[in-house]
Every structure is written in structure tokens, then in C-alpha cells.
Amino acid sequence: MKTTLSKTELKVASYISEGMISKEIADKMCVSVNTVRTHTRSIRRKWAAKNIADITRIFILSLPNIVCLLNNKQLENEY
Description:
Layout (H helix, E strand, L loop, with lengths): L6 H11 L4 H8 L3 H15 L4 H27 L1
């Protein structure tokens, strides 16, 4: 991952990579479409993504790192 995303941004990137549009993401997260668009802009800026396809590609390529980070956080919470 080029720059670490917040938990919310990571969730939005995940939904984008599943092919969801802003309205669907907003409904699922119980936020406004404008909020989703703001998170999407932030993701694009942090990852230097030109479009949604770039966000999807970077998210998929980053999955091993994301899983590793999540596993490390779970281990930290167990102690």
C-alpha cells in the first residue's frame, strides 16, 4: 500500500473493489453519498489513483498487506 488508509477508507475501497457504486456504499455504511465521495477522493489522493479501476487494482494488490495488518492487530488485542 502506498499510504495507509483509515479503517473507513479501507472499507470504502473494499466496497469499490466489489463493484459497488457510491449510492450502494452510502446505503450500506449509513452515510451520505457525499461522504462516500469524500472518502473516495481521499483514497485516490493517498494512492495516486486516477480512477476507480486504479483503486480496485491497488486494493487487490494490497490484500496480502491488509490481511497481515489485520492479523497483527488481532494478535495485539489478544494480549
